[in-house]
Specification:
Elements: H1 2-29, H2 34-41, E1 48-49, E2 66-74, E3 80-83, E4 91-97, E5 102-107, E6 117-121, H3 123-131, E7 141-144, E8 149-157, H4 164-173, E9 175-178
Parallel strand pairs: 6-7
Antiparallel strand pairs: 1-2, 2-8, 3-6, 3-9, 4-5, 4-8
InterPro entries: DUF1254 (IPR010679), UCP010244_IM (IPR014456)
Transmembrane segments: 6-31
Keywords: Membrane, Transmembrane, Transmembrane helix
Length: 179
C-alpha cells in the first residue's frame, strides 16, 4: 500500500511540474504574440497605431486614456532614429525585444526639448556613432539595446476626448527610420 501511495504522489507532482512548464513556455511558442500581430499589419520601420488599426486592436489597453503606436525594427540593418513633433500632456517610449520583454523605457522628461528624439543602437553601433555623430542626432537621447529585432512602442496621454485629435496628430508625426 505504501508503494502505491508513493507512486501516486510522484505521479501527481510530476504532472504538476509538466503542466507548469507548458504554461510558462506558451508565450515563447505562441504564433499570436505581439511581434506576429504587428508583422501582419506593417513592415519594419513603419509606425502602426495599436488602438485604431484596421480590424481588431493589436493590443487591449489597460488605460483607455492612452493612445499607442508601435514600430518593428532590426538593429542588424542599422540604428533606429525615432522622432516626433507636437505637444501632448505626457508620452512614453518603451523598447521591447522580439519576445516582448521590456528592454528600456523612458518618457517626455527624458528629452531636452520635450519632443521625442531617440536613437536605438547596439553597443558596437553606439561606439561607431559616437565617434562620428551626425548633426541631426546632436540632441538625441541614445538608447543602448543589445537586441537584434525589436519593437518600440510610443504611448501618449489623452485626458479626454477633446485631446484625441492632438494626440493622434502627435502619433502620426512619429518617424521610425533606419540609418
Amino acid at each position: 500500500m505504501g508503494k502505491l501511495f508513493h507512486a501516486v504522489i510522484v505521479g501527481v507532482i510530476g504532472a504538476a511540474i509538466v503542466h507548469i512548464a507548458i504554461l510558462l513556455m506558451v508565450p515563447a511558442f505562441s504564433v499570436r504574440d505581439a511581434w506576429s500581430s504587428l508583422s501582419q499589419r506593417s513592415n519594419y520601420y513603419t509606425m502602426t497605431r495599436l488602438d485604431q488599426a484596421a480590424g481588431p486592436p493589436l493590443i487591449e489597453t489597460i488605460d483607455p486614456l492612452f493612445l499607442a503606436s508601435a514600430c518593428r525594427f532590426d538593429l542588424n540593418e542599422g540604428i533606429v532614429h525615432l522622432t516626433g513633433e507636437g505637444k501632448v500632456p505626457y508620452w512614453s517610449i518603451s523598447v521591447h525585444d522580439r519576445t516582448g520583454q521590456n528592454v528600456f523605457s523612458l518618457n517626455d522628461r527624458s528629452s531636452s526639448s520635450g519632443h521625442p528624439d531617440f536613437v536605438i543602437a547596439t553597443s558596437d553601433q553606439m561606439i561607431a556613432i559616437r565617434n562620428a555623430l551626425p548633426p541631426e542626432m546632436d540632441r538625441s537621447v541614445f538608447i543602448e539595446a543589445d537586441v537584434g529585432e525589436g519593437i518600440v512602442v510610443v504611448r501618449a496621454f489623452a485626458p479626454d476626448e477633446s485631446w484625441h485629435p492632438t494626440v493622434s496628430a502627435f502619433l502620426q508625426s512619429m518617424k521610425c527610420l533606419s540609418k
